[in-house]
From TrEMBL:
Keyword Repeat: yes
Gene3D superfamilies to which the protein is assigned, alphabetical: Tetratricopeptide repeat domain
Record-given protein name: Tetratricopeptide repeat protein 27
Family according to the record: Belongs to the TTC27 family.
Keyword Ribonucleoprotein listed: no
Organism the protein comes from: Echinococcus multilocularis (Fox tapeworm)
TPR-type repeats, residues: 378-411
Keywords, comma-separated and alphabetical: Repeat, TPR repeat
Amino acid sequence: MVATLTFSDIMSVELNDLAVRCDQDCLSFCLLGCFMAAFYYDFNLAHRFKELCESLLGLKVQFSAELGTRTKAQENPLSQLILVVERTHAANSFQSPSDGSTAQPKVCPLEDDNLLDFVRFMDVTAAADPKLSVPEQAFVLCSGELHRRSHPHDDLIDEQSLTYVTAVVRAVAGSDKNKVKDDGASESVPRNAVSWPILTEALFKRGSYERRSLARTERAIRQLEEIAAQFSSPAPETEQRGMQHFFWSRMPSQWQIELSLARVLTKIGSTKSALDIYLRWQQWDEIISSYTSLGKRDLAEKVIRERITSGCATPELYCCLGDVTSDMAHYRTAWELSKHRSARAVRSLGYYAFRKDKNVKKAAECFEAALEINRFQVNLWFTLGCCYLQLHDFPQAERAFRYCVTLEPDNFEAWNNLASAVIFSGRRAQSLALLKEATKWNFDSWRIWENILLVGMDEGSFGDVISAYHRLIDLRQKHIDSQVLGMLTKAVSENLPDSKNCGAARYRKDLLTLFGRVTATNPSDADTWRYYANLILNSNAEAGPVQFQRAVQYIQRSYQCRLRSATPDWEFDKTAREDLLADLQAMAKLLIPTGCVDNFTSDPEMKLFITSALSSLRMNINLYIARLKSAINKCVGNEPQEELAAVTKMLSDLNGTINAALNDLGDAA
């Protein structure tokens, strides 16, 4: 109630009247107003207070970038985010009587062999530490807090917020050094003013933001331990700790610092050390979670039951008891105790039904009830969508996944599942667009690209299919889908209309490039070689000698691949026999002089190639006939013998035709 009245009082102040004042009370009021307005999400008011602070202090802060290095071994400088402090007028209109320095908390270094404490900039002017007075340091931290609260939480915002904090820490910790003059002499650089509360706030925030490496996490632990210990340290004296600057900062209390330390310890796996802190500050949810992660469910259950028997029974405690004991009755108790208002209780009932009872319908009903209470549960929307997919309720699945991607646009799995729900509703074009959206958030998921391959083929979006096939090869080193390649070959060869009602022949060049990659990465697939040959032969333009030779060679490779991959007794496998026979017939049809081949025989080199290919074909047919005759002798029934005999006769006739063609070519010579 006090905070609400205070904020109401702040809102009732006429801000224009503050602009004429330039004293410490005015700055304190504006800094406090900026923070409280941001705390209550009134960002317009917060920015107005920020503008007043800028006017009082005569400065602006904004992001910029400079080339620099972060490690000692880094040779090539990269662009680094920095905070630039710009003075709006030379003479600062604000004069603070309490701008003197105080004692300084210990600033822990990284203690790493490679990482630098601060970015080393290439530009000397950028490398110079900013000159910030105590009120200016307070304003920079307040601006960083406003920036953090007014943007959604992600890694980029954390990095930007850390830049505000680093500017203050660097201004204080980096200013205590000597500057080399032009004549080589050394002169002392004036030290920036230090404020115990403001620097404590900056160090606390830096420890919360730094999670990029193990060295920084270790420094964060040491720093949080250091500033937590300062509360019980007798030195420095209280009057040296800058209490006059207290209301310019958001200096954390001891319990906030220690709990932040406990969270960092939990993150790196030091759960026992974190548990000691949680026990000291009676953080029951964290205590229960720590006991559970340590495998001490009995102790967690004991703590919960003690809390319940002490008269502190809450729906959350009963939910925790249900988590520890895996007893659904406790979730029901929590649900009833909350008078059907606990989202966690009914959500837990849903998960129990989903995982333990395998009752997907009941789970979906519980999840719907939980989302009616709190609709901002992204993971629950995703799980609900999966439930509806299992129930084949695709409109409801689409609704759930649409909520999920609205709340979390970078959830590529939700986009992928949304596309699945849409395609089952018969909207293939929309499903393809959703799958493309999923690739924006995860370009390396082969499952999404495989879905694009299949959906794009059904939709006739041949360009997307070819692109997806290339990406699958990139991700998996090799990828074979003979059915898709065959359909693409048919579409391009027959110039079938695509999704935009344009002829597919325009993709011929792209498809040839794709076949080149497929055969290079996996040269043992017979169907791929066969389709490759068909694509070359079915060109609208008349095939030249080079294309003709390639087609013959690809069919030969198709036959050899089938022969190598066939089972030892492939003669008795009708499918294997027919596939091999089809390759031999296709090769014979291509090589026996008719039309196009007659034109090639006038060239001595082409005539020699055709003669050699026909001789090789005749040898393969003779080997095939020999295998079939041997198989006929092994047959017991009449029906298999008749089938093999029919194939043998067909091959013998084909062999006779080849002999005649070879004789004609010999006579022509």
